[in-house]
Amino acid sequence: MTILQFFIWSLLKVIVVTVVMLMSVAYTVLLERKLVGRIQNRWGPSRVGPFGLLQPLVDGAKLFLKEDLIPTAVYRPLYLISPVIALACALISIAVVPFGSPEVTGPGGFHFFAISDVNIGLLVILGITSIGVYGIALSGWSSNNKYSLLGSLRSSAQLISYELALGLSLVGVVLRAGSLNLREIVENQGKHGLLTWNLFGGFQFVAFFIYLMAAYAETNRSPFDLPEAESELTAGYHTEYSSMKFAMFFMAEYANMITVGCVATLLFLGGWTSPFGDLIPLPQNIVIQSLLPIFWFVLKVFSFLFLYVWVRGTLPRFRYDQLMSFGWCYLMPLAILNIVATSLWLAYK
Amino acid sequence: MQLILFIVFAAFCLAGAINLLLQTHPINSALSLIVVMTSLAVLYLQLGAEFLAAAQVIVYAGAIMVLFTFVVMLLNAGREERTLGSKAAAIVGFPAVVALLAVLATVVLHAPSLDGAAFGDNLSNQPGKTNLDQLSTVLFTNLLLPFEVTSVLILIAILGAVALARHGNGERTAGE
């Protein structure tokens, strides 16, 4: 495989994955509106297209055509660049996520179903997430608005605090797999389907719970959506943003949700492998062999997103000090205990 | 390809460093420092030190610099005042910098183990072993004592910070 072929194939993969990612972001918004509507005993969007299916496209067009207001007192360079940072960081992480079977390869052992297979995939995702904080922190500061500043301070503090718990909750999984490579982590737990998933067979349910909580906080979602608590902060860090700049923050939030769902799927739910393991043998057809893993992967990510929306529709918002003490006093020690227990178990085995 | 990437990111790194010194607003300086840190991470990646690169981004760019920007945002630090600079700094400083650079360059040029290619070979070209395996083997066997002593040092620093923060808090409540 020449370098030119590699370049063209990679470019194709990047384009396809980015388009799919953006479309799923748009339709996650619709999913949320529909589901929350049902939870609140109403229909949700239903006018545009069949079942409201064209609603995301219309929303996008509306936001694109809106007037773009920039308040006079903002600090312009940072005000303009922070939505870009937020969205870029949210979209980049998908580059290391393997979303299909690595056994189906093209000429020269080329992997179709992952943009890149990195040895430190998990760390790359954590690193990119930690850079994403700047988008939020800088937008609030540069807007020159007290609500924005308060929202962004809250959000950054929350992100930094819960990133610790999030990172620590993943250590147990990494210990079990003995690798930071996402593909290897999945292969390590895919042998017997449901029974060998890290969530069940690996006894990492404590880690999964911590990850779940930390993930809600990391993506600023209810019940931890304090950065944009409407009743006290108008809209938090993006109060002063309008039109496409607002849309970029919005897309970043949903893209982060999807990435978090992908990571949960890879680390705890067996990634692209079937929940039935080898009980149902795969047919020799290459099309089915390549599409079925993607189906499982998408199904798992979808159920994670469903859970997200369900929690949002059900639970009230926490108070800020409750959020902080929950993160530092309960989740952190629990995560450390989980690491100790997992290491002891592995050493004993 | 390697060379192009090296030149691009080295240029980013230097530009960020110079910008850090020239900017008058503290938040711009902090952001330039982030650019320096991340470009350094890319340079590490080129040397085959992938774990170091990730750690650089997570720890320095992600955690420490966030605290820097936090402080700048919270204290609302204003623009730096330009002074003409002291004469002593100009007279002593420039020759000192030149001398320092000369010494560093001599050391680097004469050290055989710092040759880029050889360095990369040691780190990543062993079959079946990742960078992380090798790093942890060295850290937890040969360098175990320094590693543990460093972690104790960091623990002491954390305890010290907590003690200082507590002390300040207690005084304030006593005064109120």
Largest interface: A-B, 25 and 22 residues
The gyration radius over C-alpha positions of chain B equals: 21 Å
Q: Give the rounded overall mean pLDDT of chain B.
A: 78
Q: For the record, give the distance between the C-alpha atoms at the N and C termini of chain B, rounded to a whole number.
A: 64 Å
| Number of spatially distinct domains of chain A | 1
Concise summary:
The complex is a heterodimer of chains A (349) and B (176). Chain A has helices at residues 3-39, 55-65, 76-92, 121-142, 146-177, 182-189, 205-218, 230-233, 243-268, 286-314, 320-348; strands spanning 105-106, 110-111.
Commentary on this structure:
The complex is a heterodimer of chains A (349) and B (176). Chain A has one domain (63-348). Chain A has eleven helices and two strands, in the order αααββαααααααα. Chain A has helices spanning 3-39, 55-65, 76-92, 121-142, 146-177, 182-189, 205-218, 230-233, 243-268, 286-314, 320-348, and strands at 105-106, 110-111. In chain A, strands 1-2 form a two-stranded antiparallel ribbon. The longest helix of chain A is centred in the first third of the chain and has 37 residues, at 3-39. Chain B has 176 residues and is mainly alpha-helical. Chain B has a domain at 1-82: NADH-ubiquinone/plastoquinone oxidoreductase chain 6, subunit NuoJ (Four Helix Bundle (Hemerythrin (Met), subunit A)). Chain B is built from seven helices and no strands. In chain B, helix 1 packs antiparallel against helix 2 and helix 2 (26-46) packs antiparallel against helix 3 (50-75). The relative contact order of chain B is 0.07. The mean pLDDT of chain B is 78. Chain A binds chain B through residues 3, 78, 118-120, 123-124, 126-127, 129-131, 133-134, 137-138, 141, 149, 153, 156, 160, 163, 179-181, and chain B through 1, 27, 31, 34, 38, 50-51, 54-55, 57-58, 61-63, 66, 69-70, 73-74, 130-132.
